[in-house]
Amino acid sequence: MKKEIRKFVDDYINPALAGHDGHLTVEDFDSDGVLHVRLGGGCQGCAASKQTLQGQVGGYLTEEFPEITSIVDITDHDNAENPYYRKENEE
After folding, report:
1. Per-residue pLDDT tens for 15-56?
2. Mean per-residue pLDDT for 67-91?
3. Parallel, antiparallel, or unpaired: how do β-strands 22-29 and 34-41 relate?
4. Is residue 52 part of a domain?
5. Using an 8 Å Cβ cutoff, are 5 and 29 in contact?
6. Of 11, 29, 35, 60, which sits most exposed with the smallest number of CB within 10 A?
7. How far apart are CA 1 and CA 13, in angstroms?
8. SS3 3
9. How many whole angstroms separate alpha carbon 78 and alpha carbon 86?
10. Which residues contact 22 (CB under 8 A, 6 or more apart)?
11. Residue 37 lies inside a defined structural domain of this protein
12. Domain total for the chain?
């Protein structure tokens, strides 16, 4: 199943994320139906990444693969090199 999800992500999700210099990597899909993903490029550290993943991306994935019970973002957003939206500096 992980191979099919990866192909779907590469064919349909990543081309859309590429518009913001981002991408999604499928890291794991466990027996409980939990999909572990990592956002990269412009999506890593992006202020809208949570909404993107839970909204559009999650919707497409769970519609295509009803076996997915939840999606866990394992991205280290605090160490982004080039987020599409930068956080304001904390004082």
Report:
1. 999 988 899 999 999 999 999 999 999 899 888 889 989 888
2. 76
3. antiparallel
4. yes
5. yes
6. 11
7. 17
8. helix
9. 11
10. 39, 40, 41, 42, 43, 44, 46, 84
11. yes
12. 1
DSSP 54-69: IIIIHHHHHHH-TT--
Q: Say if 89 falls within a structural domain.
A: no
Residue 38 is encoded by which pair of tokens? 């990592």
C-alpha torsion sign, points 8, 56, 35, 48: positive
pLDDT band at 79 (very low <50, low <70, confident <90, very high): confident
Q: Residue 54's domain spans which residues?
A: 2-79
Q: Are 48 and 39 in contact (CB under 8 A)?
A: no
In whole angstroms, what is the distance from residue 75 CA to residue 3 CA?
Answer: 20
Beta carbons of 78 and 38 less than 8 angstroms apart? no
CA gap 4, 65 in Å, rounded: 9
Model pLDDT, residue 88 = 54
Please provide the average confidence, as pLDDT, over all residues in the chain: 89
CATH number of the CATH domain containing 8:
3.30.300.130
